[in-house]
Amino acid sequence: MILHRAIAIDGPAASGKSTLSRLLSQRLNLIMVNSGAMYRAVTWKVLQRGIDPNDREAVVQALREMELECGVADLVSTIKVDGIDPGDELRSESVNSHVSAVSAVPEVRECLVSLQRDYLKLGDVVMEGRDIGSVVFPETPFKIYMDADPSVREARREVVGEVDSVAARDRADSGRATAPLKIAEGACVLDTSGHTIESGVEAAIEILRGQGFVMPASA
Ligand code: CDP
Ligand code: CDP
Predict the structure, then answer these.
(1) 211, 141 Cβ separation under 8 angstroms
(2) Does the beta carbon of 147 sit less than 6 angstroms from any atom of ligand 1?
(3) Which of 77, 84, 132, 142 is the most buried (most CB within 10 A)?
(4) How many CA atoms lie within 13 A of 178 on its CB side?
(5) Mean pLDDT throughout 211-215?
(6) All domains of the chain, ordered by start, with CATH?
(7) 106-118 vs 35-48: helix axis angle to the nearest 10?
């Protein structure tokens, strides 16, 4: 049973998911949930403990031993691992390089999907990730799949000085057996290559209206 409304935003790295989700959250008064931060937090802890992120059994054991606390502050999801907020370390080069391996482990996905679904108990959410429309909330009618040319996406990461192999992550995320990145059934594709951030938000609002999302009067 769906308790509140969920907007699912999926797409490859640097397609503009976080930017759009943040702006939709502010404009439509929704809780913004960055599901990627949850996969990054587990990866961060695995690396901190010196565990090989490609050793599935060791990753599952580490997952069982860590305490994940998910919350909300100012309408934005938060995550702590064993009482610590990893902060900017979630976007470090080492987490960028290993997060796809850790997130391909079915036990990791099962655990995090359950925590992601729990957010719907708190209110209406806009959640961004790779499998939100296909696995986490397949029944929601409000689904957008964001995309942009690979060269545009690489350039976006370089502008902010982040060391990230976007193409390698996309290949791993799309090719894995469990919950691969794909266009979910019912999702509308929004290519942001030629969009400014503002025009991208307007296009997303139009898509959501078309999918039957009732906007608050202030939007
Ligand atoms: O911001 P960006 O799109 O670069 O990445 P992210 O959303 O922070 O996600 C980091 C990684 O977590 C992805 O490359 C996927 O491997 C994994 N992820 C996933 O498997 N499923 C999700 N729902 C979200 C992220
Ligand atoms: O969350 P995801 O990795 O999909 O992308 P993001 O972090 O929202 O966006 C990546 C970068 O692209 C950010 O620096 C945005 O400011 C920029 N961006 C853009 O230049 N034009 C857009 N239409 C959307 C995002």
Answers:
(1) yes
(2) no
(3) 132
(4) 13
(5) 95
(6) 6-209 (3.40.50.300)
(7) 130
